[in-house]
Design brief:
This is Glycosyltransferase family 4 protein. The chain has about 350 residues and is an alpha/beta fold. It folds into 2 domains: about 1-170 and about 340-350, Rossmann fold, CATH 3.40.50.2000; about 185-335, Glycogen Phosphorylase B (Rossmann fold), CATH 3.40.50.2000. It is built from 12 helices and 11 strands. The strands form 2 sheets. Strands 2-1-3-4-5-6 form a 6-stranded parallel sheet, with helices on both faces. Helix 4 (about 125-135) links the parallel strand 4 (about 105-110) and strand 5. The model has no long low-confidence stretch (mean pLDDT about 95).
């Protein structure tokens, strides 16, 4: 099976780390895991973050040059399908639909977002292109059941929608020994939703009745000084680890007793999968994005606020056996639903729906 892969939002070879880059790399790994030969067709980044019509026209011209280049390349390579990850109004797929049509091969998308309200305004041209690309897709894999609502409402008659659970690029979970170490929070330090999560954490910590706790915070960013000021009242109970590379973050998970991150407006929250795979119980708020990745358990609703989180956290801190049971259940949940073999199986089934098989 020979597949072309493209990520218009951010190429998997982009030098700057991000969640998008990691997911693109994981998808390629899953496709290869199922036995496919995967070619990164283009590294053109079509993203316009400001809504600039001149930028959009320039990117459309660059995309057309890529189309002209890739059609003969695809013919020679014998591509059997084209897969695009993350098509949306700020970074539409301006290449895949045209190349697929010219080659007469199926066109598939992963995480495509419909945004009809953007068909007017600064991104109108790109929004139309993103909608057209979504319409052209024979199969759309979606991570979030929330996204599925809009996809179903606007799907073409022959389009297949397939739920692809978010996943880690691993074939198994590690063997871990339960730890009674500090709690762990992992998040970028920037204004907006990330800062809102840190504010919820600070308010929750201030309400704890359990007095024997410590918290490590992994992450960095432009709002670090603000986060440090927010956490200053807790003194030596709190430690900043800074930005950690994957190996160091893995060690932090192994040394922690639980993962605490409210997840304000998180789309998916891959750190939850990483923490659970390491055997950590997770305390988060019950939000739509979290439901895609968290093992079944009790998560306070956002309207319960810090008080709701503090009640659960006090119980977890006071009960090591409960933490261990919850961590074990979370790890088993990830092993069953959110690793590369499960993702490869779903991707294989989706490709088979349009006649592409090994």
């Amino acid at each position: 099976m020979r597949l072309a892969f493209y990520a218009p939002m951010k190429s998997p070879t982009h030098p700057v780390p991000s969640g998008d880059r990691n997911i693109a790399r994981s998808l390629i790994a899953a496709l290869k895991h199922m036995g496919a030969e995967v070619t990164l067709a283009s590294t053109l980044r079509s993203r316009d973050g400001k809504g600039d019509e001149r930028v959009q026209h320039s990117l459309q011209d660059a995309a057309q040059n890529e189309v002209d280049r890739l059609i003969p390349r695809g013919q020679i390579a014998g591509w059997q399908a084209w897969i695009t990850y993350h098509n949306y109004y700020k970074a539409p797929d301006l290449i895949g639909p045209n190349v697929s049509k010219a080659l007469g091969i199926p066109y598939l998308q992963i995480e495509s977002t419909r945004a009809r309200k953007r068909l007017t305004g600064a991104w109108a041209g790109f929004a139309r292109a993103a909608e057209a690309a979504a319409d052209a897709a024979d199969v759309v894999f979606y991570f979030s059941t929330r996204d599925a609502v809009g996809l179903r409402e606007n799907a073409t008659a022959s389009q297949h929608l397939v739920h692809l659970r978010p996943f880690l690029p691993a074939v198994s979970v590690p063997q871990v020994q339960a730890s009674d170490g500090a709690m762990l929070s992992v998040g970028m330090m920037r204004a907006g939703d990330k800062m809102a999560s840190f504010e919820v954490i600070a308010k929750t910590l201030a309400l704890l009745s359990h007095d024997n706790w410590h918290l490590d915070i992994a992450g960095d960013g432009p709002a670090r000084a603000d986060v440090e000021a927010l956490m200053a009242p807790f003194g030596t109970r709190l430690r900043f680890l800074g930005q950690l590379d994957p190996d160091a973050l893995s060690t932090a998970y192994q040394n922690a007793s639980l993962m605490f991150w409210p997840g304000v407006n998180e789309a998916l929250g891959m750190v939850y999968l990483e923490a659970q795979a390491a055997g950590l119980p997770v305390l988060a708020q019950d939000r739509p994005g979290m439901r895609e990745v968290l093992a079944p358990a009790r998560y306070p609703a956002p309207d319960e606020g810090p008080a709701g989180l503090a009640r659960v956290l006090d119980e977890m801190l006071a009960n090591p056996s409960l933490r261990r049971q919850s961590g074990k259940a979370a790890q088993e949940y990830v092993a069953q639903h959110h690793l590369m073999p499960a993702a490869a199986s779903t991707l294989r089934d989706g490709l088979a729906r349009v006649g592409v098989t090994l």
